[in-house]
């Protein structure tokens, strides 16, 4: 094992876990390379599902993947810890000490040798330096944050239900800053929660008592997507009694209050920040590697970093150029999935002395899911030069298939079929909403 080429992948998100799984099957199982995954958590949940975990419509426990168990099954190693530094000269990455919930050191700082390093650490919310955002907003960057949001939401509903029972003021104001896919889908999930929770005993609080507002700085929601999709999404949010404020930049967040640039003050007991992303800050000064203003590592089309051919980066944390475009690949789940496929081929070719595969992004469209109400989207994107608008059950089927494709990449068809069957049984036996 010591003489094998060591491929280290940092980050077990959608792309990172898919890549390390494929490398383990193709190289680790056959003894052609040693493959290691480094991640700060013990489990993986597909990030596009975090808003469903937050609202309670998805039980994360049944959708988590344990890295250690998955590594054993797919022939790679797992190291628990957060990458905190890099020495390119000695080809070592630094893993920060791992602390328990009480702040006690469980595993000290350590170093890990690599021959090829792949950085796939994803992204975090970008609050653009907005005063009060860090102190008073909730974020959905991780499973831990999604679970915290869920607990706070349940407590808020419980408190307002009690106030309604006492005949007191009981309006619950929820603000979502940012009307990208996450913000729009979260608004629909929260509306569903406001209608479902009364079924389970909170019957003094009515859905109309829960005011949900989506705030977007651009002149329309889903500004990065086609106008028709934005219009359909706006219509659906209006149908679900979600207030949409377009062209309204946020200037400050205060306790219980959102201040807009035009001076408007919005009451907000729960404020969620979903406006923009950036790569983790430690990438901005990582042993001389080139990065941009959003902390992304700048890479060639082969996904190699510009200043070190032994280090690759992909997903949200990488700025990858494309032919005939002056903009890098958009930070989307489908891009990370495609990059993982391209990197698998490149890293296998690299061991055999062959050329790397240049990554070319194919946009297969976008889908926006409004919880159990409806789904809208456009398919094909720039693959054919035209897009096809879809909605309703057909769109919902395509939306669900995205997650199933991710599961197939991690588990294979047979195991994914079993998981799908177990999900059906679980949904039939469990409450529609997670109540704890």
In brief, what are we looking at here?
With 436 residues, this protein is α/β, with parallel strands linked by helices. It has helices at residues 14-28, 50-55, 67-74, 133-136, 143-165, 181-196, 227-239, 333-351, 392-411, 413-429, and strands at residues 6-10, 34-39, 43-44, 65-66, 77-80, 83-87, 92-95, 98-99, 105-107, 110-113, 116-119, 124-125, 172-177, 210-215, 242-245, 250-254, 257-260, 265-267, 270-273, 277-278, 297-298, 304-305, 308-313, 318-319, 365-370, 374-379, 388-391.
Please explain how this structure is put together.
This protein has 10 helices and 27 strands. The chain is α/β, with parallel strands linked by helices and 436 residues long. It folds into 2 domains: 191 residues, FAD/NAD(P)-binding domain (3-Layer(bba) Sandwich), CATH 3.50.50.60; 210 residues, FAD/NAD(P)-binding domain, CATH 3.50.50. A 6-stranded mixed sheet has the order 5-2-1-11-23-22. A hairpin with a 4-residue loop joins β17 and β18. The longest helix is centred in the middle third of the chain and has 23 residues. The model has no long low-confidence stretch (mean pLDDT 90).
- Which fold name corresponds to the CATH topology of the largest domain? FAD/NAD(P)-binding domain
Question: What would you call the shape?
Answer: globular
Largest sheet composition = 6 strands, mixed
On the 0 to 100 scale, the average pLDDT is: 90
Percent of sequence in beta strands: 15-25%
Per CATH, the architecture of the largest domain is: 3-Layer(bba) Sandwich
Helix content: 25-40%
Number of strands: 27
Q: Which CATH first-tier class of the largest domain would you pick?
A: Alpha Beta
Q: How many domain modules?
A: 2
* Strand-pairing-aware structural class: alpha/beta
Calculate Rg over CA atoms.
22 Å
Q: Could you give me the name of the CATH homologous superfamily of the largest domain?
A: FAD/NAD(P)-binding domain
| Helical run tally | 10
Measure the end-to-end span. 45 Å
Order of strands across the main sheet: 5-2-1-11-23-22
**Which stretches are low in confidence, meaning pLDDT under 50 for 5 or more residues running?**
none
């Amino acid at each position: 094992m010591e003489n094998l080429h060591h491929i280290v992948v940092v980050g077990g998100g959608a792309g990172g876990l898919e890549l390390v799984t494929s490398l383990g099957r193709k190289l680790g199982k056959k003894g052609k390379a040693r493959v290691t995954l480094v991640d700060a958590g013990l489990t993986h949940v597909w990030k596009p599902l975090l808003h469903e975990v937050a609202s309670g419509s998805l039980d994360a426990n049944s959708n988590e993947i344990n890295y250690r168990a998955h590594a054993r099954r797919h022939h790679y190693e797992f190291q628990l810890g957060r990458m905190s530094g890099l020495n390119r000269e000695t080809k070592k990455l630094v893993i920060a000490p791992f602390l328990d919930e009480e702040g006690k050191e469980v595993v000290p700082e350590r170093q890990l040798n690599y021959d090829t390093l792949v950085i796939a650490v994803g992204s975090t919310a970008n609050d653009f330096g907005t005063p009060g955002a860090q102190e008073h907003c909730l974020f959905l960057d991780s499973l831990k944050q999604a679970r915290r949001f869920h607990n706070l939401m349940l407590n808020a509903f419980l408190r307002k239900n009690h106030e309604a029972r006492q005949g007191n003021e009981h309006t619950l104001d929820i603000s979502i800053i940012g009307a990208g896919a996450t913000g729009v889908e979260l608004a629909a999930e929260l509306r569903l929660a406001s209608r479902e929770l009364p079924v389970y005993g909170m019957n003094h609080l009515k859905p109309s008592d829960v005011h949900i507002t989506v705030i977007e700085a651009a002149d329309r929601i889903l500004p990065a997507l086609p106008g028709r999709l934005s219009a359909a999404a706006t219509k659906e949010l209006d149908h679900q009694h979600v207030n949409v404020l377009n062209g309204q930049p946020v200037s400050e967040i205060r306790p219980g209050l959102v201040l807009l640039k035009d001076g408007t003050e919005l009451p907000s007991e729960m404020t969620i920040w979903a406006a923009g992303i950036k790569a983790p800050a430690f990438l901005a000064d990582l042993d001389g590697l080139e990065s941009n203003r959003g902390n992304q590592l700048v890479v060639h089309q082969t996904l190699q970093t510009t200043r070190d051919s032994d280090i690759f980066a992909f997903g949200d944390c990488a700025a990858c150029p494309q032919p005939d475009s002056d903009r890098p690949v958009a930070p989307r789940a489908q891009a990370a999935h495609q990059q993982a496929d391209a990197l698998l081929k490149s890293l296998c070719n690299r061991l055999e002395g062959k050329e790397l595969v240049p990554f070319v992004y194919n946009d297969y469209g976008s889908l926006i899911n409004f919880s159990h109400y409806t789904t809208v989207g456009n398919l094909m994107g720039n693959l054919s030069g035209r897009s096809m608008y879809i909605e309703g059950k057909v769109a919902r089927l395509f939306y669900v298939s995205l997650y199933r494709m991710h599961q197939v990449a991690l588990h294979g068809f047979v195991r994914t079929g079993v998981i799908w069957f177990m999900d059906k049984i679980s949904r039939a036996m469990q409450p529609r909403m997670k109540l704890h």
